[in-house]
Structures are given as structure tokens and as C-alpha cells.
Write a structure and sequence with these properties.
This protein is α/β, with parallel strands linked by helices and about 425 residues long. About 35% of the residues lie in helices and about 15% in strands. It has a five-stranded mixed β-sheet with strand order 8-7-6-9-10, with helices on both faces. A three-stranded antiparallel β-sheet has the order 3-4-5. It has a two-stranded parallel ribbon with strand order 1-2. Strand 4 and strand 5 form a beta hairpin. The two termini are about 35 Å apart. It holds the Pfam family Integrase_H2C2. This is Integrase catalytic domain-containing protein. One of its GO terms (molecular function) is nucleic acid binding.
Length: about 425
Amino acid sequence: MLRQPHPIVPLSLPSNLPDPDQQPTTTRTSLPISPAHPSVINLSLDAVTAAQERDPKIRNIIDRIRDGKNESNFVLHDNILYCLVSKNSRATRSHVPYIPPSMVPAVLETFHDHPLSSHFGVRRTLYKIKPRAWWPNMQRGIENHIASCHQCAHHRTCRKKIPGHLKSIEPPNDVFQVIHLDFWDPVRSSKQGNQYVLVLTDNLSKYVIAQALPNNTVKATAEVIINNFILVHGVPERIITDNGVHFNNALVKVITSAMNINHAFSASYHPQTNGQVERFNATFSTQLAKYCNEDHDDWDDNLQSVLYAYNTGIHATTGFTPYELAFGRKQNRPFDPIAPTITIPATGDFYNRLIRTRKILINHSPENIQRQQQRAKHRYDQHRKTTSYSIGDYVFVKVCTGRIKLDERWIDPCCIVDKSGE
């Protein structure tokens, strides 16, 4: 619930303050004061004077000045203690009232919480307060006040790098062991009635299999996994998907359990977990659009051609073509010249050469992937804080869906009851 802002008696400075190097006079400026009311935030100089009289630390400084002792950073004028502050090393120092601790909350509420201050950040709030007031560790106090502000916590926009260092998936030992799956959708229905594309990407070779589908039902998903991958390339050790109902369901669970496949799900609202296939989706979407007609209803006609071009091109991460890594040989492309002679090696020789070739490729590919992962991690982690959470910690939870512009961006602090992974 939002509270109505309090009326404010402004914090003002008298116009006849002396020069810091001169002896202050004893005359007092009379300031108008609003009638006392419990809902009024009183920041008048009379209120400051009364609060200073009640503060032992400030009283001690005042007594030292009256006794003639040197207090180079403070000056007493009309029984009010002022601090001498400067904007920079060359500027003339100005007088601002020393605000006792009892009045600090009122000052912060005035210059941060009030509608005329509008809950801006530390820099703007400090800029408004600094010419008008001073107290020890003022910037830290402003930072703590804003950090604990209920409205700021629920509506703040994070413009800094998200905390947390990059953690990469360890490359597998062979091809078709770890598979990433994702739906590319939605797109305009094609003439053939297709509207979705189920994409399967091999983690090591980056080889991609994709199938256009009229829907993304559980049955269609299971059929593609069985017919297009398992019956062709064998059973993978692990598949990684998002938490969509087409992947997280009883049928897929039966398939993975029966075939002893480890099914890992990406973190909610964090597609980077399944970034292998997400990155390809962005790539082939752009390439596919270049061959569509004006109605964009023939996109599935060129789907397999785009896949062929991708699988037979050098991948920047591995240094090899996905086809070469997946099958242990280079592919003869339609544009390659026909060899004048064909040499058919002995069966045993061909098999041994294939094994040696695959061993070289499989050994070099993980090294290249890890080298690229280290470079990406170095770039990502720069100027980024790391953070960790424990069970029992209270955290704000970001509102990722169903939010309009004026809704809160963060949900009230929630208690962590369990942890999965690091």
C-alpha cells in the first residue's frame, strides 16, 4: 500500500552566512515555521537547532568552538552547527547544516521517497542533498536507504551486468551422445500445412537435424525423436530441452526411462542453458528468410537445403564441418568435380583408415570447443560479479511473464527452500 506524502517544511539556508575564514556573528535569522503537526516533516532551521541541542556528539563540537578550539571543518552561526563542504578541490567551501541522526530519516524521505524526488538513484539523491545538508558517512546512508526502499526494490531496472560467471557444458567424448532439442516457432503456416520446426543439435559435432511439423504436440515430438534420430543414429546418453509441455510430459518420460536416457531441463526463463540449439535457430531463421516468397508460405521447401549448407560448412567453434565430425569423412558436394577414377580400397584398409580419421577428429574437436569456451568465459566474466545463494536466503524473484509496464518487476522476497546445481 502506498502512503500519502507528508507535507514538508523546507530545509533552507539563511542568506547572511559569514565567510568561513571570518568570525561568525551572533545575530539570528528568523524563518517562518508551519504549525506543528504530527504528519509534517519539519526540516526548518529551528528544528535542526533543537535536534542538534539534543545530540551529544554535535554538542561537543559546538562547545569546542565556543571555547575557541580549532574545528576547521565546522562553523557555528546563530547557534546552528554548519559543515564546510566543497564541490571540488578548487571551489570555495559552502555552509550546510550538520544534520543530527534523529533527522536523517526525514531528510532521506524528503529527497528520495517524496513524489517531488520520485525514488531516483544514489547519484541524483546525493546531488540534491549535498548542497543542503551533511552528516557523517552521508553517501553510505543514502545507499543503504535506497537499497532498503520497498518501491525501488519492486520496480528497479537493472542496468548493470547480471551477476554470475559463465559455466559451460563439458563437451562429450563422442558424437550423438548429448543432443539439444528445441522448437522453432511460431511461423506462418506453409502451403504444406507446417507451422513448427523441431530442431535437434549434436553437442560435439554441431550436426543439426530438423523436421517441419504441422503442430508441436507430444506425439509429434516423440515420433521425430524416435524416427529421425534414435532409429538412425542410436540412443543418446543425454538430451537437453526446455520445460515446454511437448518435452516435459509422460510420453517422453517413458521413452527416456525405457532407453536409459538422461533428460536434463534448462533453467526457467534462461534459454542460454540450451544455447547450442537456440543459437542455430537464430542462424537458420535468417538464412531461411532469404529464400521465402512474398507470402512467406514456402519456408519449408528450402529447410533441408539450408540444413545441408550449415552441416557442410566449417563451424567456428570446432574448426571442422559438422558432417565431417559426425561421420568421419568429407562429403562430396553437388558442385564438386567428378573424379576421373574411383579407387576402391580393401575393406580392412578402409575401416582402419576411418577409425584413425575419426580418432583424430574426435580428439581435436573437444580441445577446440574448450578453447572457444574459455575465450567466451573470459569475455563474459569481465567486470561481472559472482554470487551464490544458500537455502534459507531471501531473494527477490523477477517477474518474467504477464507483466505490463506499470506492474512490479520483482516479487516480494521469497525464501530459498532447495538448490539444484551450483
